[in-house]
Amino acid sequence: MIESLEKIAIWICRILAVIAGSALTLMILLACANMVSRAVWVPVKGTFELMGFLGAVTAGFSLGFSHLHRSHIAVGLLFKYFPRPAQIVLDALSSAVSCVFFVFCANETYKYGMFLYDLEELSETLGIHFYPFVFAVAFGCLSMSFVIMLDILRILRGKEPLKPA
Q1: For 29-143, where are the E strands, in sequence order?
Q2: What's the rounded Cα separation, in Å, for the pair 72 and 100?
Q3: Residue spans of the chain under pLDDT 50
Q4: Are 24 and 58 in contact (CB under 8 A)?
Q5: What is the pLDDT of residue 164?
Q6: Using CA atoms, how far apart are residues 95 and 91, in angstroms rounded to an integer?
Q7: Of residues 152, 158, 37, the one with CA closest to residue 94
């Protein structure tokens, strides 16, 4: 059962990472196009808004993938000096706190997205709705909490944290 959940988590994180990478590539292309266009004629309309939207997608969708690959900052300076059973408990406890934090972030971000949806808030220059990007960040936080929850289950079973093949 857990192995199938882990495969689903890896699959979801890879898809989100591809979308995040595509958004980052679009940000680079947009920035370059804006610089060239500004030098030659006029800047690209709505660059600031689009960079913000694409940045939100990039940050939100890359969370779970970066956790899978352990490319984030982990503070465990004192953990290595404790006996192995204490390390397991502390690792599980800190992961549980992180999981709850990201569930809370996803929930609050979703509520904010619903607030923006109800207001029908639009960006100033291009008139793009804000809420899909807020929902994207909420989904990214939810995927992060899912990956951390699977890590907790692996820690408590005495296995190494989940790593994609």
Answers
A1: none
A2: 18
A3: none
A4: yes
A5: 66
A6: 6
A7: 152
